[in-house]
């Protein structure tokens, strides 16, 4: 627009009934929305390149991005996954088009919830948030915790719970959630402190008894661990008494077995602590994360066939796997998406990372926090895909020697562990 076309500020002969020239406040509001991180209006521009149907008859931006989260998909075979993991520019574009689906304070009508939020802008999606019921012995209103139920492989309901790292005044709430949901597995993907505090210490620390355990030494140390079980570190956290029975340091993470007790009832909980993942960044290699995903999955499967519940209890099977980092969206999202993706590759021979991340964000806004984490997720699953194909090729060449192949792989893993 030419500057000469703009009328003088105060023309003496101007008709007072003449409407003023068009101003731009509506445009500014639209621009601010598009420029905001995770803007959902801009996501309509070229989603066709990802094979998504154009969205029609949608009246509000919220409906637009929810439709995109429900419909975006990009299934990849083993070969296509390897190629996609190398194309970082395409992955960056793909990531930027996924709606964040963050929750505003106006959407979360819960008085006083900000006191229990580690980060004021990271809030639980109302539709899937975990609600803490008041204990039977203490009548009162339901309580708030910054946590969401997360769907798993093939949309399995409440397969996981994603939550923030406990704070000093929410440690009791965290263990109330573990008890209420009957969770037997906790995965922690953060250090206690990085540049600042990321998580409050919420379990007893067996510092003097922790030893590094190799796979080949486990049988030799079984007797010693049984003796230690009677003298584990104990502590009271909220309403519960926790007792550490065993702690093992593995390559990249620590596994701690403990008991949680309320009155006369006691339940086992296994705590996985992955410490080699820097905040807002990515690990140096994918192997430790894949080992953690595999260990958690194997232990979870073992719980399905072994009931730890009291005989009189009608509830059977383990509860959701609780996963947290600091905010409960970045590294937490990477772990859950990696676990789901590994199951997809193993069961179907293909993976849909885009669809998986969209599903996660429908359950908890902002899951997978950075482009680097998204690329690392692709790299992790591409590495797992290579391992699967390698094992499948060996099994096809020697169908009668599968046990021998497994032993060779174990020996190879042990050799690599020794070299590390």
TrEMBL record:
Pfam families: Y_phosphatase. Residues 216-232 have a biased composition (Acidic residues). This is protein-tyrosine-phosphatase. GO terms for biological process: signal transduction. Substrate binds at residues 279, 325-331, 369. Its EC number is 3.1.3.48. Residues 1-32, 208-234 are annotated as: Disordered. GO terms for cellular component: cell junction; cytosol; plasma membrane. The active site is at residue 325. PANTHER family: PROTEIN-TYROSINE-PHOSPHATASE (PTHR46198). The lineage of its organism: Eukaryota, Metazoa, Chordata, Craniata, Vertebrata. It comes from the Eukaryota. One of its GO terms (molecular function) is protein kinase binding. Residues 91-384 form the Tyrosine-protein phosphatase domain. Keywords: Hydrolase, Phosphoprotein, Protein phosphatase. It comes from Seriola lalandi dorsalis. SUPFAM superfamilies: (Phosphotyrosine protein) phosphatases II (SSF52799). InterPro entries: Prot-tyrosine_phosphatase-like (IPR029021), PTP_cat (IPR000242), Tyr_Pase_AS (IPR016130), Tyr_Pase_cat (IPR003595), Tyr_Pase_dom (IPR000387), Tyr_Pase_KIM-con (IPR008356). Residues 8-24 have a biased composition (Pro residues). Residues 290-375 form the Tyrosine specific protein phosphatases domain.
